[in-house]
């Protein structure tokens, strides 16, 4: 007898080309622990339904435990003849139990099984991803804590705009990752629905109890529609969106780190453990971790597109196309679990060049807005203040001077608004401290923000 799960009505065996196309065990074997979990719950429900005697159930559960141990020890492995993880594990069960092993398939199809396995796998791995995100957030927060009072050039269009607390900038990245965690938590609520009991598509005529099975497997409920349950891959697509979004956030942080580490910026120095060298240029220290974070966002975005494209236009219910859901999902999980710890390490160990940041914070006339706002407080219309300061900037550029080099006369020459007291606002710490409304870069606010984020990340 064939070990295939579907040999009965076929006379000849499948063509090699079909087998090679069809086989998925080389990538879905990682679902084995979850398939075994679901099998135990299914065995118990068959027992409660009177479809397995107590003795049969005990032998079935014993064999499943034994098979799990054998899988863990690497003693049981899928062979090329096993079409998928479900086929391989049924073979393992038959090897242990003989014909009793064939009873477990009652009321169950690979269609509800694979959808259940993938949900279990993802819910489990999302927890790991959240932990790795929390480590990266913690690394960013520790650096931020050191640099609440470090002024840095704040940029728009990659041009000096206004000075900011470097801690404020680091915490901006933490907020992005905190939203990712929030999205994954929200995702989990929708993913917590069990397809088991839906069978191939129509449910089962056997007296199964999908709600109890759902709870045994840690789901919140059983699927209310068996057709939707086996056809739905929203949970996979939504996860891939969340993963792609994390990828984009990692990529943006990665790009900043690449810039910061450059000779032109020199804002940070990367630790040797998280930088790479060149095979020809002995002096090089390269930001490969940050670049790979940036580069791998491409595959995370691609994985989302792959699955959405696969799902588009599929008729209900299960179609074999759905087997293509797994590789993009696994790749996204693997990619995040590779990139997140490396980025956390890079951030945790980078040394911030405080002197350089502080010195360049006022560059590019970054205090121009402060000057204009001072005039506004003195009653000048912002439109006029903006223009007067604009003229002052041009005057300084032509005469190769900074704001603080200007004499009282020079100030007055550009505009009568510029009385000597305007110099009071030409201070970077003053500029930072004055932005003290909620969300602003004033160090007092950044400290509050950091405390709130610490609480939030503790709650992850
Ligand atoms: N390996 C398949 C998948 O990953 C599950 C098998 C369902 N096959 C079937 N012919 N109904 O989607």
TrEMBL record:
NCBIfam families assigned: argH
Argininosuccinate lyase C-terminal domain ranges (all copies): 365-432
Location(s), subcellular: Cytoplasm
UniProt keyword annotation of Iron present: no
Family assignment from sequence similarity: Belongs to the lyase 1 family. Argininosuccinate lyase subfamily.
One cellular-component annotation, GO: cytosol
Domain Fumarate lyase N-terminal intervals: 15-302
Matching PANTHER family: ARGININOSUCCINATE LYASE (PTHR43814)
UniProt-recorded name of the protein: Argininosuccinate lyase
Pathway(s) it belongs to: Amino-acid biosynthesis; L-arginine biosynthesis; L-arginine from L-ornithine and carbamoyl phosphate: step 3/3
Organism from which the protein derives: Bailinhaonella thermotolerans
Gene name of the encoded protein: argH
Keyword Cytoplasm: yes
